[in-house]
Automatic annotation (TrEMBL):
Family: Belongs to the transketolase family.
Annotated source species: Fuerstiella marisgermanici
Stretches assigned to the Transketolase-like pyrimidine-binding domain: 322-497
Gene Ontology molecular function, alphabetical: transketolase activity
Keywords: Transferase
InterPro entries named in the record: PDH/Transketolase (IPR051157), THDP-binding (IPR029061), Transketo_C/PFOR_II (IPR009014), Transketolase-like_Pyr-bd (IPR005475), Transketolase_C (IPR033248), Transketolase_N (IPR005474)
Record keyword Transferase present: yes
Names of the cofactor(s): Mn(2+); thiamine diphosphate; Mg(2+)
Any single Gene Ontology cellular-component annotation: cytoplasm
Top-level taxonomic group: Bacteria
Name of the molecule in the record: Transketolase
SUPFAM superfamilies noted in UniProt: Thiamin diphosphate-binding fold (THDP-binding) (SSF52518), TK C-terminal domain-like (SSF52922)
EC numbers, comma separated: 2.2.1.1
SMART domains cross-referenced by the UniProt entry: Transket_pyr
Length: 643
């Protein structure tokens, strides 16, 4: 019995309605079918994204759910153009919010490019349905969106290349906070590009409501200020939305439709809530589907079981796992608690980029709102603001966001360094572990932060990636009061405590973190693996297994990434083999330079570095193994060096 024929939301009810933008009033027949299309699409999105929640894969529901009316109308206008109607419309559902990928997958099915059965496997490992759209990876997906704010400038170029066509782009009030969009708006206006923005203005981002934390920001007034024609209306008023889209499409030049609605309209328990941004909880989805007559879909959700867990590892304590990205805020609070309030307010400012719950800053906002700045989705500006606050001696800016966004602030890092600013920056979600959002959200190029010059030791920039929660705590407490730029990295995943041969914590209660000092986790005569972060416990398991197989291999934890411990380098240079294992980009990570540094110190052994080396393939813990960075992969690479 084929699952494909049993998709419990009947997508066969979806009928493309060819819509002529020159006729701005819907017929009764058109409106009835469009309403049915909206209903079936929204129910389908609720259903298959909730499957991912039931499997523990996460995901996003509210964004794609919200923009269904715009999408089905776009689809109708594209169908009209396909049939020879005018104006011509480029048949791509460009979207600057990558987390709305469920839209792309659903439309790929409705367009016949992908089997409906695939929707049962949203965000699963090897399903080719990752958490953000990737061109060439998923059938029917026609673009890679990257992160927020990346698409509009790109779409401008597409519009220039297709000057005879209308080009649509789905937008959002959150995406429009990004500086890229301001630049894109100015170019679109100056070049009279035929780009039509459909902005979902639901006053919701991950951290809350922009009207609360960014008073003064108004997406419609912002776009008007750049010279765009702006049309504001109710995104749930089908007749009004259609008429406004017709007017936009038949108007030359760029137009922004601001479609206002509550997030997840009609979804009890989520409507208007920031929780709608994330994946819908299975129980909420079941209630919704039952209330909307989708009993079979609700029954299916009730039968879904959590996906497989990862392997176990020797040398670490699986019962004691630290989520360092969350601990960051708790540890900062411990430090702030010890600073008198007046001094605290004068000397510290903490800048959030709408990801407070993902980086631990929610704890700081709750306990120390007096030093907390809700900066919105503006990584470049917020990092520079943190650097500006830390411009004076004795003052410190604290900043946090995802590691994937480090690439967006490299220029700002340079300016902060040149100004000798004091910034403590936490970049979470480093590497690829536990990242179903896939390649665009991998934190691979973190070493770009180490862009200073070897000018007689003047550069105080330091990069740290501790291996477990206890080393993370010791590191953060040690580096908090230091000057210069300090970057501390953590993963989306939790990491287990590292253990010595006797089963005791390696970074125990008496451990003191020394910046620049590498730690020997296991000694070895045949060679060493050098690692850090979440790769360390996997490498430790590999070392233990290699020793059991007769290969006396050691392990070094290099938690300070951009400083060379000369004592340890001498030890490694005398070793027969060295392997650097990391989850950073194999081309730009620690290992890409480490071999050269060993050669400078007389190394004559065998060397290799392994890291993230190919586009992701969905899933969570499976990403590391897919890259050859699980215990088995590290063992295999080390055995090749040993000969």
């Amino acid at each position: 019995m084929s699952v494909a024929t049993e998709f419990p939301v009947p997508l066969s009810e979806y009928k493309v309605v060819a819509l002529n933008p020159n006729q701005p009033k819907l017929t009764d027949e058109q409106k009835t079918q469009l309403a049915a299309n909206i209903k079936v699409c929204r129910d389908a999105i609720i259903f298959f994204t909730a499957i991912a929640d039931a499997k523990g894969l996460g995901g996003h529901t509210g964004g794609p759910y919200d923009t269904v009316p715009e999408t089905v109308i776009m689809h109708g206008m594209m169908e009209h153009a396909r049939n020879g109607g005018t104006p011509d419309v480029l048949p791509v559902f460009f979207d600057e919010a990558g987390h709305r990928v469920a839209t792309q997958y659903l439309m790929a099915v409705l367009e016949g490019d992908m089997d409906v059965e695939k929707l049962f496997h949203y965000r699963e490992y090897l399903s080719h349905l990752p958490g953000h759209p990737e061109k060439g990876f998923t059938p029917g997906v026609k673009f890679s969106s990257g992160r927020l704010g990346h698409m509009w400038p790109f779409v401008n170029g597409v519009a220039i290349a297709n000057s005879d066509k209308v080009v649509f782009m789905l937008g959002s009030d959150g995406s429009q906070m990004e500086g890229n969009d301001a630049e894109a708006a100015r170019l679109a206006v100056a070049q009279k590009l035929n780009v039509k923005l459909l902005v979902d203005d639901n006053d919701v981002t991950i951290a809350g409501h922009p009207s609360d934390y960014l008073p003064g920001f108004n997406v419609s007034e912002t776009l008007e200020g750049h010279g765009l024609k702006v049309d504001i209306g109710d995104g749930e008023d089908l007749d009004g939305l259609y008429a406004r889209m017709c007017a936009a499409v038949t108007t030359d030049g760029p137009v922004a439709l601001i479609n206002r609605r509550k997030m997840c309209p009609g979804v009890e328990g989520l409507e208007g809530s920031a929780h709608g941004h994330d994946v819908i909880k299975t129980a909420v989805a079941i209630d919704y589907l039952k209330a909307n007559g989708r009993e079979e879909a609700a029954e299916y959700l009730g039968s879904v079981t959590k996906g497989p867990g990862g392997p176990t590892y020797q040398g670490s304590d699986a019962k004691s796992v630290g989520k360092n990205r969350d601990l960051f805020g708790k540890i900062v609070n411990e430090i702030l608690d010890e600073i008198p309030e007046a001094d605290r307010i004068a000397s510290v400012k903490v800048f959030d980029c709408d990801l407070e719950g993902s980086c631990g800053l929610n704890h700081v906002r709750a306990s120390h709102p007096e030093v907390f700045v809700r900066g919105g989705i503006m990584e470049r500006g917020n990092f520079s603001a943190a650097a500006g606050f830390g411009f004076e001696k004795g003052k410190q800016g604290i900043f946090a966001t995802f590691s994937a966004f480090l690439e967006m602030v490299v220029s700002e890092i340079t300016m902060a360094r040149l100004n000798d600013s004091n910034v403590l920056a936490h970049f979470s979600h480093a590497g690829c572990d536990d990242m179903a959002d896939n390649t665009c959200h991998f934190g691979l190029n973190n070493m770009f932060a180490a862009n200073g010059l070897p000018d007689d030791g003047h550069d105080k920039t330091r990069l740290y990636f501790p291996a477990d929660q206890h080393q993370f705590r010791a590191c953060l407490k040690k580096i908090y009061g230091e000057e210069g730029l300090r970057f501390i990295f953590s993963t989306r995943s939790g990491v287990p405590d590292l253990l010595d041969d006797s089963g005791s914590r390696i970074f125990g209660d008496g451990y003191q973190f020394v910046p620049g000092k590498d730690e020997v986790i296991r000694e070895g005569k045949a060679g060493y693996i050098v690692s850090f972060g979440e790769t360390t416990y996997r490498a430790l398991d590999a070392v233990i297994r290699l020793k059991e197989a007769g290969h006396d291999v050691g392990l070094v934890c290099k938690a300070t990434l951009n400083v060379y411990d000369e004592e340890m380098m001498a030890k490694l240079a005398a070793s027969p083999a060295v392997l650097v294992a990391e989850s950073f980009n194999v081309n730009t990570g620690v290992g890409s330079k480490f071999g050269t540094e060993l050669l400078k110190r007389g190394f004559k052994g065998n060397y290799n570095n392994i890291g993230t080396n190919k586009e992701g393939s969905g899933g969570l813990w499976q990403q590391m193994g897919y890259q050859g960075l699980d215990s088995d992969g590290i063992m295999e690479s080390m055995k090749k060096l040993l000969g």
